[in-house]
Amino acid sequence: MSIEEKDIREAWETVKNIEGEVGKAIIGQKEVIRQVIMGLLSGGHILLEGAPGLGKTQLVKTLSKVLDLSFSRIQFTPDLMPADVIGTNIMVKDEEGHNKFEFHNGPVFSHLVLADEINRATPKTQSALLEAMQEATVTAFKTSYKLPSPFMVMATQNPIEMEGTYPLPEAQLDRFLFKIDVKFPNLSELKDIVTLTTSSVEADVKKAADGEKILAIREIAKAIPIAQPVLTYALKAVMYTHPENVDSPDIAKKYIRFGASPRAAQSIVNSARVRALLEGRYNVSFDDIQYVAYPALRHRIFMNYEGIAEGMDVDVLIKEILHMAEEQI
């Protein structure tokens, strides 16, 4: 697909409108809003980590309203079963009065799915999302069902309450395009939040796009070129997360147990194309790679015991890795 100037301009204007409408209801989380939209336009899934009450649920609900997409919320608990997520067969009577089984869709059959406190559920239930996230299909009772498109899972986990949680396995973490840290608002933002949510006036959020428009922008983003030096920069950043790599920085060799998978490189390149589009540019820059590398890598780098004991910040590691990769271009 070839792209023209008007395609870039129209896509940029559409995304700006989406950000503006979502920003009416979500105060002070501009980067979170942008990265969530980038995830949707990249065809990926988002892992949000932050304390309760920071507007994560409201963000997904508002985004579904702005895009006129279906939305469902799944509260993950230890007693949640896979059938509660994907659906199950229910016995019904046909027109002749005979009993038959009919599949009833679970909440995963929505465009935007909020998996709230995903690390509260057992690994068996967590794995029910794996196929949906990777293949956009659900298999139940030997039958496959296609999920709506666009489809995105936004999962939340609480970094504070660790008792009674089941850490997400590496395979499932790797299914997420981004891990986004949701920060506490500053004083000015907190004032605006309280003013908005404690008054009788609700945010006037309007539709800014639809599913077809999102899919069209995805295709435009895929056509944005990436120069070989920029691509090499992205690939080296992923390679340098592996401590066994002789060229990796010393800090990576000291603190990392194992690094990012090839899927991380795909995530960086795909989302960097979207970021270039959001900036109104026709090609991917080094700055795009740097911007997306943090959310794309922070959940794919696993610390060793020394890194955990010293409380090493994964973002510090990523910064050093990017610096080393830039020097080697």
UniProtKB/TrEMBL annotation:
CDD domains: AAA (cd00009)
The AAA+ ATPase domain, residue ranges: 42-186
SUPFAM superfamilies per UniProt: P-loop containing nucleoside triphosphate hydrolases
Name recorded for this polypeptide: MoxR-like ATPase
Keywords from the UniProt entry: ATP-binding, Nucleotide-binding
GO molecular function: ATP binding; ATP hydrolysis activity
Pfam families cross-referenced by the UniProt entry: AAA_3 (PF07726), AAA_lid_2 (PF17863)
Protein family: Belongs to the MoxR family.
Keyword Nucleotide-binding found: yes
Regions annotated as coiled coil: none
Source organism (scientific name): Lutispora thermophila DSM 19022
Keyword ATP-binding assigned: yes
InterPro entries, sorted: AAA+_ATPase (IPR003593), ATPase_AAA-3 (IPR011703), CbbQ/NirQ/NorQ/GpvN (IPR050764), ChlI/MoxR_AAA_lid (IPR041628), P-loop_NTPase (IPR027417)
